[in-house]
Design a protein that fits this description.
single chain; about 600 residues; alpha+beta; 31-stranded mixed β-sheet; 31 strands; elongated
């Protein structure tokens, strides 16, 4: 017992002596005396200027720590700021260092800011710090740790980051991205221990123009040896609440599996507002070059998972209960089992993007959809109303929007009920045709008129799309008063129409123009629709209508004459074949033909 007592006394005495020595060093050693030498050394080694405006404070016991005040590091061979901070504090326990364990009490960073730039020549403004020199030098030999050397284990009690900001500028692409107001607080960070954290930040981008604010909290577990990471997160991004489960493996070429759910997501909020079209078309020389679509990030993706969105807005199209399964590998992004509710109906289908050849494919089946609101929201065009089904199966290639439109190929079919064609009243046009029968045969051209429409009880059409042009030749629209057929082309790439429709009056005495159309029953009026979607024009070809009507009347007269002729021939034949006793007495002085066939020939001569 005495031996143990003396051992404890000795150990205690050594600890006190050691603590006293550290306290003396901390009290007599002033690191601020060396700020000038530190700055000179940084200037010599990196050709950057280090300015330490605040004080440097050291603590040696019971924890080894350093606190740094306002500090600034310049760009390479420049006085412009590259990075800076307002305050940093790091402290770690001394005794665990003896067993090669780094136990950090806490890391605190306040006001950290970093400005990253990629120059036009492809070099970044931190290349020199990473060892990429102006003149290449042989890489130093890397000393491999001995097999017996045990790795240092890190155990951090917590990390606190306040008011941090990082910016990235690409001079060649003309883009800039910024993360600001970055605040992070974590619990214990150690191998095999789930890390609890809370994070908040703001993100801005120049192309596409975007501003996002988010908070995020959850648990993250990482195993650096096995190269695995798992996260269970909840976040709020602007007005959206998000839950996510993410698993990642193989950090060198990561594969990610995810399950993400949004309560609502407005994609348009993060895109540049659509510019209004100028009233006059600019000449080709004045138009800006179209920016290509960069598909290359897809080539780096390796992931699989599911995405659910309760309420979605994208390209002004509204959808609910969106669900999709996503898979990406080898440069292909596949969206399988895509389904959603939209515009009083639903849609199901698939979509894919192949970044290796810039090919896109879309296959969708819309059921019970109100087509009018969908067209108005998606295309800002009020051309058609009705509710029904649309089948879409198209493929395309290209790295710009115009190239994608020009190379569209596939099929489209639609079948609608109880709708209307917007911009023209064909019933009124047929009434006008009736009035013009006595006033001439001139054609009439008119622009699409807001408020005018042609009602139909059902409409069907199918389109064959080739090189951005959709051709149709089986349009059929019906109402109790009209029949509408047609054929023509829709130029998707140019956003224009060239279509010839034929409206035929089948009116009764009620309904849209029925009373006035009763007298024009059977009249067919050709209507040619042409021009850009934004300024469609309708040409009413009254001349063709009158010509067709005249042809119909001639044909009807011919049929009438044919009927009368047949009746006369039949009557003459019956008279010619009567028995001799029933023949009418001769009125002339000549002798009658002796044979029945002679009588028939004679009668036919008189007839013709």
């Amino acid at each position: 017992m005495k031996l143990l007592k003396w051992i404890l006394i000795a150990v205690g005495g050594v600890v006190v002596l050691f603590a006293g020595a550290l306290a003396f060093i901390a009290a007599t050693f002033d690191p601020n005396q060396y700020k000038g030498q530190i700055a000179d050394l940084v200037k010599e080694k990196t050709q950057r200027t280090l300015s330490i405006e605040g004080d440097i404070r050291l603590t040696l016991f019971p924890k080894l720590g350093v606190q740094l005040g306002k500090t600034r590091l310049s760009e390479f061979r420049s006085d412009q700021e590259f990075a800076g901070l307002d305050q940093m504090r790091v402290s770690l326990a001394l005794l665990p260092l003896l067993s090669k364990q780094v136990v950090v009490d806490q890391i605190q960073l306040n006001g950290l800011r970093v400005n990253l730039v990629k120059h036009r020549d492809g070099r970044t403004n931190l290349a020199d710090l990473l060892g990429v020199e102006e003149v290449s030098t042989p890489a130093p030999a890397v000393t491999q740790p001995s097999a017996a050397a045990a790795p240092i284990e890190f155990d951090i009690d917590g990390v606190k980051v306040r008011k941090a900001a990082v910016s990235w500028k690409d001079e060649a692409a003309g883009t800039e991205y910024t993360v600001s107001d970055f605040n992070l607080e974590t619990g214990r960070v150690a191998p095999g221990v789930p890390v609890k954290f809370e994070l908040a930040a703001a993100f801005t981008a120049s192309v596409p123009k975007m501003e996002v604010k988010f908070q995020c909290a959850g648990n993250v577990t990482a195993d650096l040896k096995k190269q695995t990471l798992s996260a269970d997160l909840t976040a709020r991004i602007d007005e959206s609440n998000v839950t996510a489960k993410v698993d990642m493996t193989n950090f060198a070429a990561p594969f990610t599996r995810f399950d993400i759910a949004f309560d609502k997501l407005d994609v348009d909020r993060y895109l540049s507002p659509t510019e209004k079209r100028a009233t006059s078309v600019k000449p080709a020389s004045a138009r800006q070059a179209e920016q290509p679509i960069n598909f290359s990030p897809i080539k780096k993706l390796s992931l699989a998972g599911s995405l659910r969105i309760d309420h979605l807005v994208a390209s002004n199209v509204k959808a609910q209960n969106v669900q999709m399964d996503v898979e990406a590998r080898d440069g292909r992004l596949e969206v399988n089992s895509l389904s959603a509710d939209l515009y009083q109906g639903s849609t199901k289908g698939t979509a894919s993007v192949n970044a290796n050849n810039n090919q896109l494919a879309i296959k969708q089946s819309l059921s019970g959809v109100s087509i009018g609101p969908l067209l108005r929201d998606a295309l800002n065009q009020d051309l058609l109303d009705g509710r029904g089904n649309v089948a879409l199966d198209v493929t395309t290639t290209g790295n710009t929007v115009s190239a994608i439109k020009k190379s569209l190929n596939g099929t489209v079919a639609l079948s609608l009920k109880d709708g209307a064609l917007k911009g023209i009243n064909l019933a009124q046009s047929l009434r006008n045709a009736k009035a013009m029968f006595t006033g001439g045969t001139r054609d009439s051209e008119q622009a699409a008129t807001a408020g005018e429409k042609t009602d139909f009880s059902e409409l069907s059409a199918s389109f064959l799309v080739r090189e951005g042009v959709a051709h149709n030749d089986d349009l059929l629209a019906k109402s109790p008063f009209l029949r509408l057929t047609g054929a023509g082309d829709i130029n998707i790439a140019k956003g224009s129409l060239n279509y010839l429709a034929k409206a035929t009056a089948v009116a009764t005495s009620t309904g849209q123009g029925g009373k006035d159309l009763a007298d024009t029953r059977g009249l067919t009026l050709p209507v040619r629709a042409s021009g850009p979607f934004t300024a469609l024009k309708y040409k009413l070809e009254f001349g063709s209508a009158f010509s067709d009507s005249a042809k119909q009347q001639v044909e009807a007269k011919k049929e009438e004459l044919k009927g009368k002729l047949k009746d006369q021939i039949k009557s003459r034949l019956q008279e010619a074949t009567k028995p001799a006793g029933e023949a009418a007495p001769a009125t002339g002085g000549g002798s009658p033909p002796s044979r029945p066939e002679d009588k028939l020939k004679e009668k036919l001569k008189k007839l013709f």
